[in-house]
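[agent] plan:
  1. take the single chain provided in the ticket
  2. run structure prediction with default settings
  3. attach structure tokens to the ticket
  4. add a short note for the reviewer (M.T.)
[agent] executing step 1
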Amino acid sequence: MYGYSGKILHIDLNEQKHWAEEKPEEWYKIYIGGVSMASRLCWENIEVGCGPYDPGNPICFANGIFAGTPVPVGGKYGLASKSPLTGVLGDSLSGSWFSIALKRARWDGVVIHGASDKWIHILIDDDRVEFLPADELLGLGTHETEEKIREIFGDDQVRSATIGPAGENMVRYANVTNDGRQAGRTGHGAVWASKKIKAVSVRGTYGVTVADPDTLLKMSFDITEVAQGPHTAKYRIYGTSTNVLNANKHGFLPTNNFQEGTFDFAELVSGEYLDEHHKVKVIACAQCPIACEQMSMVKKGPYAGSMTGIEYECLQAVSSNCGIGDMTAAIRMVDISDRSGMDTMSMGVSISFAMESFEKGVLKKEDFKCKKYPEGFEPYFGNAEAGVTLAEMIRDKEGIGALLAEGTRIASQTLDQERNAETYKWAMNIKGLECPGYDARSLKTFAMGLAVGTRGGCHNRSAAYDPDIKGETNRFTVDETRGEVAARSEEYAAVYDTLPMCKFIRRCFTGKADRAGAWPTIAELINATTGWNFDYDDVDLIGVRAHTIKKAFNIREGWKQEDDDIPYRWKHDPMTRGPGAGHVVTDEELEYMKQLYYKAKGWTEEGLIPKDLLIELGMDDVAEQIGV
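[agent] step 2 finished; step 3 output follows
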């Protein structure tokens, strides 16, 4: 096969052994790579019904079809396990050199089974696997761990995926970091800690063989040239943080734990302000001609020296959504999160949940005792020092930080039971995953897209906010088109997540971001890499199959229709100001849109997948287990 090795590496932590599994070419044509292949590997290898921290929950890597080739933004991989936040499939993406090293080691995927009784560091050195003690890595931050590993081996070609102190402490939204990038959501770092894996390192020494190198090189050069032009200028100059002011203008910028959609100090936490006052350089992932990551530093004040890459989703979570208008504190909070290995979005929403719980009297000053503040402190909205302190407490699971480290769903359930409270009314999560940076009360297609999402509250898996924001739909109302719009936008996103390619490249094929513009070029790239004969419809099926295997996994693990829901606040508490004022998504509207969506997907009214549809997609074994 071209583009693939045809082999999946299996690693058994219990026996400390490994073996190769060969996969047929037809299997690759169905699952391709990224989150689709990683999800399929979970389907094949998990002990059905096991808990996220059980040894029977495997860690599944899947490389990308374009990793190690000249194809721009193609150096990404998928990571999947059952999520400790949601209890269903947790699928994430990360990129840069780790995926290229794995491809050069001639592995299309890796499945890690069981659990170790001691902290270990796994080295994949081409076809050799070593189980190394991780004692000298424990306690190190994510970046420090990678640097230490390269120092140990004396080889900067060794690339590592690691967890930090938050992962070691099993914060439920701990992430996995490689090359400064994160497989950020759903809690992979905690799953790694349950298996006592501190790091997985790869050294690959082989080349990558493609079917038509001349065509692939020519196409890649042309796309790269376009990718350095106006279609990506927003990302290159300001990064995604430029979305702060746009979201604020349209009234869906999460503010004070999603109480409002506009923030009085949005200018002070905007991408433009970041660019003028704090940006020190711009960084690109491997194989990326865009370079969107805005490395920013605090140059003076109590948080001087804090430096990290800042993106919109992370920035809004720790600034406007916590009522914090101090960019230096926001940078510090993201820095804490990145170095300790936490998902900043879930961390920020958990902090804002604590702030609202304090302001409503459920939590008291004495609940916030810590080493820094033995008498406790008052984490009201806008208290920047409280936000920074809570980030540290969550990282260390100190005091109330241990409760917030469980995520908003478990924290809310605990408080409501122990204090006879109703914090569920402001626990902003979907299926246990904290909500992203778009208040969905005035983005009704997106609200439904989030509700039905297999991952939980995720803007990357449902792109249904796009037609709402662009005016392709009326974002304040519902109509019979919404199911089709949400289904197709979800499958569109799944194509990019399966190849996987960064979605920022989407306008660089023909200048348009739609299927008609991108799919013919993507088919040509696939064919030049593999020698296959994919066409427009085959690319469409990549997204359909990717989403279907994730949905099938969740059904098998106990998903019910009532799980497709949105937070209480979005259904009952309208915003009081801005363009979104007065709007909610009612239960009736949500149920109507869900039925439209299930119909558009070809599913039953209960949201289950018909057996004949699964067979048509080439998933006969899946049909036997969950088809109706």
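[agent] step 4 note for reviewer: The chain has three domains: 7-203, 225-430, 439-626.
[agent] ticket updated
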